[in-house]
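Run log, item B.
One chain of 337 residues. Sequence copied directly from the ordering sheet:
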Amino acid sequence: MADKDEGPVRSITDLARIAGVSVSTVSRALTSKGALNKETRRRIQLLAEERGFQLNVAAQNLRLGRTGAIAVLLPLGHERGQHLSDPFFMAMLGWLAEKLTDRGYDLLLSRVLPEGDDWLDNFIRSGRVDGVIIIGQSNQGAVLDRTARHYEPMVIWGAYSPRNAYLTIGTDNQSGGAIAAQHLLDKGRRRLAFFGNVAVPEFAARYQGFLAALPDEVRASTELVHAHITPEASYRMASDYFASGKRPDGIFAASDVTAMSIIAAAAEQNIRVPDQLSVVGFDDVPMAQLANPPLTTIRQDIKRGAHLLVDLLCQRLAGQPCQSIQIAPAIIVRESS
């Protein structure tokens, strides 16, 4: 067998020669990154231990001109109080971490409070990562456009627009809003409200799709309620809204977090969901089905979205052409409507 060769092991190339495999296979085995047969991985690791060889990952990346890391950035230009513990972000982050590990990358996570227009360029110039995934455009579209014109390995989760210079993966938000509108109409609801911050491009598209699908007389009376993303702020807004005497019979919320906050506030005002009020959210985060009552929502395929973000970024890193993708939403009907 090749691994019985007693030659010296001074480099990853020596170990690959002794093991009878490629250098890239040895790299995947010793870094525990990338797809590799478990038996092969273990054999190479044992061989490295026997020969006293340790891979210098930093030196290897330096030789290859790479860092081995991908940044996942959450820019909070519009909702500076949002936390990394947001259910949607946590679900997305989990799938991103899994896919990046499969591709052999480490994940560098950062919650960004943008100051000025050069925060993204400054981050990229730091040379800490090989590419960037950004979750949400926030109000940073102009910054993203400017950076995208000179920096290709960057992909954004967010609303598509033909005007964007940057690459996006995201749900067809307008279609999702239209689906929510039709569902509420089918339930006989006519006194409607939309809860969400329309300064967020994704939320604005959901609102536009929602309104466009309504009959003229329903659209004219539909209320726009500015609700923040965080559960605490959404709950306070909903509580104040109901306390003022407002009684819609159908609400479409821009996110599941907002929708669940609305349900909690309605219960305190003795508004029965869904008998008196139908509530529809957007995202289908894991806890949506655990709400009381379980939440009807417009589902984003978060897993597929995360995998596409990584796949398209890797295509960009390889110099391959790619284009923005919109994912079709679907309604998940539960007991809140």
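Observations after the first pass:
- The mean pLDDT is 88.
- The two ends are 66 Å apart (CA to CA).
Flagged for discussion on Thursday.
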